[in-house]
Amino acid sequence: MTIKVICWIGLLATVALGVFAGEDTLPSLMGGQAPKNLEELWAGYDPRKEPMEIEVLKEWEEDGVVLRIVRYRIGIFKGQNSRMAAVYGFPKGGSKLPGLVQIHGGGQYADHRAPLTNAKRGYATLSLAWAGRISAPDYRVTPEHVALFWAGKTNDPAYKLTTDWGSLDAYHAPCRNERTSWQSVSPELWTLDAVESPRNNSWFLCALAARRALTFLEQQPEVDPHKLGVYGHSMGGKITVMTAAADSRVKAAAPSCGGFSDRTSESPLYRMTLSDNENLKRISCPILFLSPANDFHGRIDDLTKALGEIASTECRLSCAAHHNHQDTPEYMVATLLWFDQYLKQKFTFPRTPEASLELKTTDGVPTLTVRPDATKPILSVDIYYTQHGQLDGKRDDMYNTISRFWHYAHARVTGNVWTAKLPLSSIDKPLWVYANVRYPLEAPITGAGYYYARYTATQFNLSSALCSVTPAQLKEAGVTLTAKRSLVIEAFGKDWEKEWFTYDLTANWARRTHKLHDDLWQAPPSAKLALEVLSQHPNTLVIGLDAYAAEISLNGGSEWQSVLLLPSNFHNAAGASLAEWKGIKELRLSAKENLKANEGGQEKTLSLGAEWRGTKPVFRNLRWFEVSK
Q1: In the predicted structure, residue 411 carries a pLDDT above the cut 90
Q2: Nearest-CA neighbor of 503 among 333, 330, 327, 256?
Q3: How far apart are CA 284 and CA 263, in angstroms?
């Protein structure tokens, strides 16, 4: 890996002061009136008009990829220049490359691993550091470095140039000012307008900066300016949607875990200009939504609304059951495939699976019928359903959303029609159900995940739209309750892992589940938690329950070992024991884990378990053991 640092000294000296003479990027408000809708918000703005004034702060080559830390001019606001730092990468010698704008989430960094892995697949990528944080070899900008930049401590050895919002503040985690402008349109000292205005909001500023990023890519000699895409995670997902809605240069978009759930602001002005639903109405480019089914930020219930709002006729979904704000390769790879199709014309997505829910059946058990696109080989059709959610359509409680348990329903196939029965335990709760269809990849694909960890996928997942049913509809259809409460939590039979999950990108055997959050597996009074384990060698098994965990010493060998635990056997990081089984949301089985707890304002950690020796353990008969009185 070769590294060189390039500085445009005269420009940098001027930039350090943050002040430029010149006309402001956005005009003053006409008659003091703020924009009232999206058309007015972007009216008259041309992201190509101003010079980019690109600085290269560092350049290096890695595995045949040219990588650069750059800054470009976002615009001039209130007389001061704003500049975006980013990591840019492309395959050395490449030409007519499709270009991608990658937008990080709230606590994340611009990271060189995204441009690096994308370049190996023939893309030029600009990873934006809208919050100021950067992760690259020998150029890491942490929140502490961002604070040095704000303070102008250029003599500090740790000082690094990064994103400069000038007179404004669109930083995050932390923001430069005590009161933030992410959910507000109110005027502050660090906002653009002196009246309530969507131009005061940080979402708008970041979307404007992302539109300038498209201009950056257009001007690079190795990039095809007609093949530009944008993708982002979490907060970056919302910025992705806003950018695609505002800029026709975006030919494909792929937001993950965001971009469709910001709908409920108390400010009418915010709702008409910055809300997801208003932006979604203006998206006409092909768009892929990656939405884990338990995500707290981009909620799968709202995804159904989004599908009815977008103008685009080309849309796909990939929704992992049980996951919250993270995913595994077969889901994340859909982003790369989406851009392969629409920017490189080298892949064709199957059609969205057709799913229809029948409530009035001969046995009273709801049935889902799925007709997937069979133009590619199908590995599996997995059907998931839940009754965890709001009764009246209001926004879900975040913790209930995260902990939703999705039952797996085995589907029987006849020809290319897959059907599954959905046994229910209540007709007083709504029902949500959808299908995942998995297809093999012709060759493995490697990418950088939501949090930039390298992954390799051998298959990809395509989801149906979510079907939802109200309690009134269940009752009117005469649905019969056939799901019964059970002391057996998990029998570990065929397909047991469909109701458990992991975020691990390796072959780690650890798994977790939300089954205990479901009424079917609530603990009886005075019960013990029982499990049988077969371990090849002596090991330590860790069983976790929410913020608590217990260590179990396993003898190893060919004999099954029985485990029997009380709530008092589980402790949190502060040393407190679990008082009762009631209210548990997550159960975990692993070789080791780290617990965290906040006690008296101090964070405490507790490390449990150790590296696993030998083959992975075998489990059976996880259950509640009723203690005789």
Answers
A1: yes
A2: 327
A3: 20
Asked if residue 300 lies in contact with residue 291, where contact means CB atoms within 8 angstroms, the answer is yes
**123 occurs within a structural domain:** yes
Q: Which residue has the tokens 């040393």?
A: 575
Of 216, 193, 201, nearest in space to 47 by CA = 216
184, 194, 324, 401 from 32: Cα distances, Å: 18, 8, 43, 42
| List of residues 6+ apart from 336 with CB closer than 8 A | 118, 121, 445, 447
Note whether 473 and 539 are same-domain residues.
no
Confidence grade of residue 397 (pLDDT, cut at 50, 70, 90): confident
Per DSSP, the three-state class of 340 is helix
**pLDDT of 16 above 50:** no
Query: Does any domain span residue 167?
Result: yes
Q: Residue 2 CB: number of other CB atoms within 10 A?
A: 7
- Same domain for 504 and 448: no
- Domain hosting 475: range is 354-484
Q: Please report the pLDDT score of residue 7 as a whole number.
A: 44
How many structural domains comprise the chain?
A: 3
Could you check whether the bond before residue 174 is cis, i.e. omega within 30 degrees of 0? yes
Average pLDDT over residues 399-412: 94
Using a cut of 0.85, tell me whether the model's pTM lies above it.
yes
| CA-derived radius of gyration, the chain | 26
Who contacts 366 (Cβ-Cβ below 8 Å, separation ≥6)? Answer: 357, 358, 359, 421, 422, 424, 431, 433, 469, 474, 477, 479
- Please give the average per-residue pLDDT across 413-429, as a whole number: 97
Nearest-CA neighbor of 407 among 431, 437, 391? 431
C-alpha 128/C-alpha 124 separation (Å) is 13
How high is the pLDDT of residue 391?
Answer: 64
Burial class of residue 473 in the structure, from the number of CB atoms within 10 Å of its CB (0-12 exposed, 13-18 middle, 19+ buried): middle
**Residue-wise pLDDT tens digits, 43-93:** 999 999 999 999 999 999 999 999 999 999 999 999 999 999 999 999 999
Distance CA 228, CA 531 (A): 53
Rounded CA separation 198/71 (Å): 25
If asked whether residues 110 and 179 sit together in one domain, one would say yes
Please name the residues in contact with 225: beta carbons below 8 A apart, sequence gap of 6 or more.
99, 217, 218, 249
Alpha-carbon distance of 201 to 519, in angstroms, equals 43
Residue 118 and residue 258 in one domain: yes
Mean pLDDT calculated for residue range 380-393: 87
- Average pLDDT (205-225) is 98
Q: Which residues pair with 543 in a beta bridge?
A: 550, 589
Place of tokens 């840019």: 88
Interatomic CA distance for residues 278 and 246, integer angstroms = 11
One domain, residues 389 and 258: no
pLDDT digits (tens, 9 = 90+) for 282-331: 999 999 999 999 999 999 999 999 999 999 999 999 999 999 999 999 99
Q: What number of other Cβ atoms are within 10 A of residue 407's Cβ?
A: 21
Could you tell me if 18 and 158 lie in one domain?
Answer: yes
Phi, psi (rounded to 5 degrees) for 272: -80, -10
Residues 615 and 607: their CA atoms lie apart, in Å, by 22
pLDDT value of position 13: 35
Identify whether residues 269 and 243 lie together within a single domain.
yes
Pairing of strands 539-545, 380-386: unpaired
